[in-house]
Design goal:
Helices cover 26% and strands 24% of the residues. It has 213 residues and is of the alpha/beta class. It has a single domain, classed as Vaccinia Virus protein VP39 (Rossmann fold, 3-Layer(aba) Sandwich), CATH 3.40.50.
Length: 213
């Protein structure tokens, strides 16, 4: 499962060749390969996050800096900070940046391998709602099923009906940018100003000259 997810993460990173990225991985997962010095890798640990830095929430990272944030089973641990983590992802992502989220699939028969391990699994609808509450566009979420259906060596990916029994789901969504409201055209402002001046001048002519001393 982790190998299939690593390949999926590499495809995401290939689409952002210039910007830095943040990956928060599961226990036993390896950092996806990328250009040295461009990525930041963290894990859950000590009630917070540790790795390249040790911190809690909110993350000590600049806003709108990262081209991609990769969450590999970070929210399967039932710590109850899903909303806070997704809010931070929205904050640090640059406009047009990509959030990739991998989570356990509750419908997979592979769940017997992590049953009673203190992990939780939710369907795609749960994650789409959580992403929408964090400010991501729910209608722009793409969904993929990853990993084995039952045997570990069957670690592929897909979007077909049979793939819905794979061990994990991966949701990908971009941070949309709202277009700014353009200012009013200066030509209209000039016309209004000119019209007002003409009316003032016409009024002065109707009043005639003032009393002479």
């Amino acid at each position: 499962m982790l190998r299939a997810e690593a390949r999926a993460m590499e495809r995401v990173l290939a689409g952002i060749p210039a910007l830095p990225w943040l990956c928060i991985g599961a226990e036993g997962a390896d950092c996806p390969y990328s250009e040295a010095g461009r990525g930041l890798y963290l894990r859950r640990g000590g009630g917070g996050f540790e790795g390249a830095l040790r911190c809690g929430l909110p993350w000590p990272l600049a806003s709108e800096t990262f081209g991609a944030v990769l969450l590999q089973h970070v929210l399967d641990d039932s710590l109850g900070d899903t909303a806070a983590v997704l809010d931070e992802c929205m904050r640090i992502l640059a406009p047009g940046g990509v959030l990739w989220l991998a989570a356990l699939n509750p419908w997979s028969s592979y769940r017997t391998r992590w049953w009673r391990a203190g992990l939780s699994a939710h369907g795609p609808g749960y994650w789409q709602t959580a992403l929408a509450r964090a400010g991501f566009a729910a209608d722009a979420v793409s969904l993929q099923w990853l990993g084995p259906r039952w045997h570990p060596e069957d670690a592929e990916a897909g979007v077909g009906a049979a793939d819905r029994l794979r061990a994990a789901i991966a949701l990908t969504v971009s941070k949309r940018v709202h277009a700014a409201i353009p200012p009013a055209a200066l030509r209209k402002l000039r016309l209004r100003t000119g019209l007002g001046s003409a009316r003032t001048h016409a009024g002065a002519l109707r009043q005639g000259p003032g009393p002479k001393p």
